[in-house]
Design a protein that fits this description.
Function: Required for maturation of 30S ribosomal subunits.
Largest sheet: 5 strands, antiparallel
Number of domains: 2
GO biological process, one term: translation
CATH architecture of the largest domain: Roll
Shape: globular
Radius of gyration: 19 Å
CATH class of the largest domain: Mainly Beta
Order of helices and strands: HEEHEHEEEHEE
CATH topology of the largest domain: SH3 type barrels
Strand order of the largest sheet: 7-6-5-4-8
Strand content: 25-35%
Distance between the termini: 49 Å
Organism: Sutterella parvirubra YIT 11816
Protein name: Ribosome maturation factor RimP
Keywords: Cytoplasm, Ribosome biogenesis
Number of helices: 4
Length: 185
């Protein structure tokens, strides 16, 4: 039987050895193991990619005697989670939702600070384990439905100037990209 951290390591090595980017592994109720993979290649992850990785991991789990009932391999989707420093570096310039463990205090924030931030990821710098994220906080107006998109085109109002903040990557509880859907086609 493999420990959770060791399982994460062998799955990561296997997925990356196949030429994909390992995003995360989750062990869920009723024996479900969910593995999320990505690629920087044009077109993203296909169904065939997921099947290929699933077949390889099924063999790996048999050899390593990993207990599981079901294996699910998928792409991260449009609201891709940002887990590692390399994710933050890769998606610099994109809209991001980040939740911190504790409120961040900055000029332009309420006195108590903000724990949830939405805005544009500017970049990440620093040594491994001491990375610092630079982030422009502002109220993100993203069309989530065709009706929202039509309303936004009518209004076209400019929001307040962004508030530039920095925080340690270690202070991030969770983060993901904000989906920007194009309803015009």
């Amino acid at each position: 039987m493999t420990q959770s951290g060791a399982l994460n390591d062998i799955v990561e090595r296997t997925v990356e050895g196949m030429g994909y980017e390992f995003v995360e592994l989750e062990r869920l109720a009723r024996g479900l193991v969910r593995v999320t993979i990505d690629t920087e290649a044009e077109g993203g992850i296909s169904l065939e990619d997921c099947e290929r990785v699933s077949d390889q991991l099924s063999h790996l789990f048999t050899v390593e005697d990993v207990p599981y009932e079901r294996l699910e391999v998928s792409s991260p989707g449009v609201e891709r989670p940002l887990k590692r420093a390399r994710d933050w570096k890769r998606f610099a310039g994109e809209l991001v939702h980040a939740e911190l463990f504790a409120p961040l205090k900055a000029e332009g924030f309420p006195e108590a600070g903000r724990r949830r931030l939405e805005g544009r990821l500017i970049g990440i710098e620093g040594e491994s384990g001491a990375e610092v994220v630079t982030f422009d906080y502002f109220e993100v107006q993203v069309a989530r439905t065709p009706r929202d998109a039509a309303r936004a085109r009518k209004q076209k109002t400019e929001g307040a100037a962004p508030v530039r903040v920095t925080f340690a990557l270690a202070d991030v509880d969770r983060a993901h990209l904000i989906a920007q859907l194009n309803f015009k086609g």
